[in-house]
Design brief:
By secondary structure, this protein is an all-beta fold. It has three helices and 41 strands.
Length: about 675
């Protein structure tokens, strides 16, 4: 159907001619122009004057377009293409298929200005809608200035990672630096990063990341980073040349029958390599690990074969060469209320100490099994009751003193009691959007008794929690209170916790020798308090306190206390404040943290992070970031003061591809309010 100011259908010539405000809709394709000739037999249209073609995922404009409506292909002379997030212009644009566009002598960008801030220019650019952009012999322009040439360029459109990143900055331990990466992407089997970094006090460093996905054969990542410190380009006072490196590899594969295999390898040149070059990972708790694991998970059980090996002699590692672990989940026995649980393992253990320590290696072969029989029932119509008995049997090929063939037995029994009471209050108010209130009380009591092991933990090498098992008697007490309401969720309703408060503790006791009479002298362990308040979706308050029952002075009774207050209005404004208190024999810490993000307007925003030690009365860390919107870019300038160290860095992010490569920038992980790191 051709609509326009003047449209003629020449039936004998199988041709339609139209002039003035032409509009054609054919399937999901819409075309507008000033003048058109359509050959009805071939469905070929010749369009002229302000031509615009739109289809799902793309829009084309030009002064003259030859378009095949049947095959959805065409040719645009001096054309412009928009396919979010890509904008492109070329002397000739060919739509060779529904999803493929080829541009000759043109450019592509994510900037929608007539004169874009940046662009990639090439003789030929291939755009695959909703997939990727491919170009050969590419020049990168900032404005009209060429700044970089690459022979081959691929930009996937389905992720948010940029191709090229350069981050300049300063850090006291590095001096002035520039960290650069180039993201190569050929296909899902061949992609990753090439890295080239320069640090004024350390010199040049280079690295490569390789990621792959071989489908049935698995997926993984390999990373290698190398630097020759003080190689003549650095200004280190020592002046000694040092070869330092880091290698990482991880592979995951899914086998049939709910089985998964994982391989992870980590090797570094020295203990400080990660701390010196990837400090953010240290703060996140990085530890080197080298293992191979194959795990099968079924509804009733899981089976794991694990091999863990030390690769670097300057770390202390407990090797498991190998370990076989079988866990049978709680299984109902026939049609009764009895349930059976089992965990069994066989492990060849060897604890290898770092070469800097004087301890000899510790080793043993351990065979361990844990069997538990429980009975689940309800009594008095409201009290859920679960009594149980359990036994732990362990064989050691040798103990701490080298004595062979050691057998250890530990027996346990206990009882879990729980119930739930609730009452509904018919309260409806706009205050906190309350639509009736429900108060829930959930008391839980757990009784535990573990006999004295036949072999004391002091006679065993300590590899993990199995070896430290000891005599224990306790009654675990917990009381949970919740206040709930209902709020609209689409067309339905959802339950929301307004307040949640839990108090819990353990009562420790002893039996008289030879019978089950209480010996007396029982005591409560630490009392734990947890409180969460969420009156609105944008306001959250959480606090937890642990008190020491051995000391009743106000100062020493509190072992730890953490409080977080989060006020989040989304992109416009968010604020978090917290306090962390720890009281231990090594000393006490009291830290206040604060973080605020505020968007001033569409162009400017800032973030502030502070961490203050109230005991030492000094700022542990301060960080300030200013954001500037540059249309298709976002610029960030950050200053960081951490103890006696100063750093700043500048990051430019493409809005279409905002993610900075992992591990590229030495930054400091932002703790949640109240956290110590």
């Amino acid at each position: 159907v051709v609509n326009g100011d003047k449209v003629e259908y020449l039936q004998a010539e199988k041709r339609i001619e139209g002039v003035g405000n032409i509009s054609i809709t054919y399937g999901d394709v819409k075309l507008t122009c000033d003048k058109i000739t359509v050959h009805t037999d071939t469905k070929l249209g010749i369009c002229e004057g302000n031509v615009k073609i739109t289809q799902p995922g793309a829009m084309f404009t030009g002064e003259k377009v030859i378009y095949n409506f049947g095959e959805q292909t065409g040719e645009v002379i001096d054309g412009y293409v928009r396919a979010d997030p890509i904008y492109a212009r070329a002397e000739k644009v060919e739509k060779v298929s529904e999803k493929k566009i080829v541009m000759q002598d043109g450019y592509a960008t994510t900037c929608n200005f007539e004169k874009p801030h940046y662009r990639i220019a090439a003789k030929q650019v291939r755009l695959y809608l909703e997939d990727k952009v491919i170009a050969n012999h590419v020049f990168f322009y900032i404005g009209n200035v060429p700044i970089l040439y690459v022979p081959y360029y691929v930009q996937p459109l389905r992720d948010t990672k940029t191709k090229i990143t350069i981050i300049p900055g300063y850090e006291d331990n590095w001096g002035y630096y520039a960290l650069g990466s180039y993201r190569y992407y050929f296909n899902e089997q061949l992609k990753g990063y090439l890295r080239l970094d320069y640090r004024h006090k350390r010199g040049l460093a280079a690295g490569v990341d390789y990621s792959y996905d071989f489908k049935e054969l698995g997926e993984g990542t390999a990373r290698y980073y190398y630097t020759q410190e003080n190689n003549g380009l650095a200004l280190s006072p020592s002046g000694e040349v040092a070869d330092r490196y880091r290698f990482q590899y991880k592979h995951t594969i899914h086998f049939p029958e709910d089985t998964m295999g994982i391989v992870e390898l980590n090797k570094v040149s020295d203990t400080d390599m990660v701390k010196d070059y990837f400090f953010n990972e240290i703060e996140e708790g990085w530890t080197p690990d080298n293992f191979v694991s194959v795990v099968t998970k079924k509804p009733n059980y899981s089976l794991e074969i694990l091999a863990r090996k030390r690769l670097d002699k300057f770390f202390t590692v407990t090797e498991r060469l190998p370990e076989l672990n079988l866990q049978v989940y709680n299984q109902r026995l026939w049609d009764t209320n009895f349930y059976y649980f089992n965990n069994a393992s066989v492990t060849n253990l060897r604890k290898r100490y770092a070469e800097s320590q004087i301890f000899d290696d510790e080793k043993t072969i351990r065979v361990h099994t844990y069997n538990k029989l429980s009975y689940m029932t309800k009594i008095l119509g409201f009290l859920f009751t679960t009594p149980y008995v359990a036994t732990r049997q362990t064989y050691y090929s040798e103990n701490k003193w080298g004595d062979p063939d050691i057998f250890r037995e530990v027996y346990e029994y206990g009882l879990d009691l729980s119930t739930k009471f609730y009452k509904v209050f018919d309260i409806v108010t706009d205050f906190m959007d309350i639509n009736r209130l429900r108060h829930i009380i959930n008391p839980i009591v757990g009784f535990r008794h573990r006999t004295q092991p036949t072999v004391s933990p002091s006679n065993l090498n300590q590899f993990d929690s199995i070896d430290s098992l000891d005599y224990e008697n306790l009654i675990a007490l917990s009381l949970e209170n919740k206040l709930q309401t209902k709020r609209k969720d689409g067309e339905g309703w959802k339950s929301v916790d307004l307040v949640r408060f839990i108090i819990s503790t353990d009562y420790l006791y002893r039996f008289k020798k030879g019978n089950l009479d209480f010996q007396g002298g029982g005591k409560f362990s630490d009392i734990r308090y947890e409180l969460e308040i969420r009156p609105y979706d944008w306001l959250f308050i959480k606090t937890d306190i642990t008190t020491n029952m051995k000391d009743y002075s106000l100062r020493d009774a509190v072992k730890s206390a953490n409080t977080d207050i989060i006020y989040d209005l989304g992109e416009k404004f968010s604020f978090g404040m917290g306090h962390r208190f720890e009281n231990s024999v090594d000393g006490s810490t009291s830290l206040f943290t604060m973080e605020m993000d505020y968007k001033i307007n569409d162009e400017w925003a800032f973030r502030v992070y502070e961490r203050f030690d109230t005991y030492d009365r000094h700022w542990e860390e301060q960080e300030y970031t200013i954001y500037k919107d540059l249309h298709c870019w976002t610029a960030e300038f950050t200053c960081n003061f951490k103890d006696d160290n100063f750093a700043f860095w500048v990051v430019f992010r493409l809005k279409a591809f905002p993610d900075v490569p992992i591990g590229l920038k030495r930054t400091y992980r932002r703790p949640s309010p109240g956290a110590t790191i």
